[in-house]
């Protein structure tokens, strides 16, 4: 129950941050700053304001998923083989890799429901946070020839799956951190 409350509070804070972003955009458009949009720098600032603040300031959108992965990684009652994307896939395949991990998390969740495992809530949180993020941001990458479908990856045990999932999220958060710092430097 406490995890649900924490997740709900986190989503509420994220929504507030997004609303603040929208309010900032509205103020920019309806103020004398509208003339900024006539030059390149103004367009860059507007784009960054519209794109970046969709996550809480200073936090990667996958931080909660990473915490839940930490909680389930030592589980002894989850015993499944899962399609496991490589942690070092090409950057342009990142979204498809993330989607694959979240799809396989649903497999873990179904297994946990059947076996009544102790980490069912944590697995549900991972799947829900990932699904919400993809729904909210309507991510839709175009499949490159070098990107694999989820079923093309090797099946690995639960431990290897979680290790690769963590590496992929950490890499994505590192890229997010770099983009966030760049935006802060431009805006200050």
By DSSP, the count of extended strands is 2
Tell me the distance between the termini: 41 Å
The count of helical stretches stands at: 6
* Helix and strand pattern: HHHEHHEH
Indicate the proportion of strand residues: under 5%
Structural classification = mainly alpha
Low-confidence stretches: 51-56
Shape, per Cα inertia axes = globular
The percent range for helix content is 55-70%
Radius of gyration: 19 Å
Describe the largest sheet: 2 strands, antiparallel
Strand order of the biggest β-sheet = 1-2
Mean pLDDT: 75
Describe the structure.
There is one protein chain. With 188 residues, this protein is mainly alpha-helical. It contains 6 helices and 2 strands; from the N terminus they run αααβααβα. It has a two-stranded antiparallel ribbon. Helix 3 runs antiparallel to helix 6, helix 4 packs antiparallel against helix 5 and helix 4 crosses helix 6. It is globular and about 55 Å long. About 3% of the residues have low confidence.
């Amino acid at each position: 129950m406490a995890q649900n409350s924490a997740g709900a509070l986190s989503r509420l804070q994220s929504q507030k941050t997004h609303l603040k972003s929208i309010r900032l955009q509205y103020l920019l458009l309806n103020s004398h700053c509208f003339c900024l949009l006539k030059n390149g720098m103004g367009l860059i600032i507007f784009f960054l304001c519209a794109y970046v603040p969709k996550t809480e300031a200073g936090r990667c959108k996958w931080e909660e998923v990473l915490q839940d992965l930490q909680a389930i990684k030592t589980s002894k009652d989850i015993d499944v083989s899962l399609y496991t994307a490589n942690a070092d896939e090409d950057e342009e395949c990142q979204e498809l890799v993330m989607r694959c991990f979240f799809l396989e998390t649903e497999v873990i969740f179904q297994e946990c429901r059947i076996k009544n495992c102790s980490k069912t809530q944590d697995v549900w949180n991972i799947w829900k946070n990932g699904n919400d993020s993809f729904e909210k941001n309507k991510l839709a990458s175009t499949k490159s020839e070098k990107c694999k479908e989820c079923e093309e990856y090797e099946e690995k045990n639960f431990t290897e799956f979680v290790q690769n999932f963590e590496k992929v999220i950490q890499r994505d958060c590192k890229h997010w951190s770099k983009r966030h710092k760049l935006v802060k430097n431009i805006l200050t």
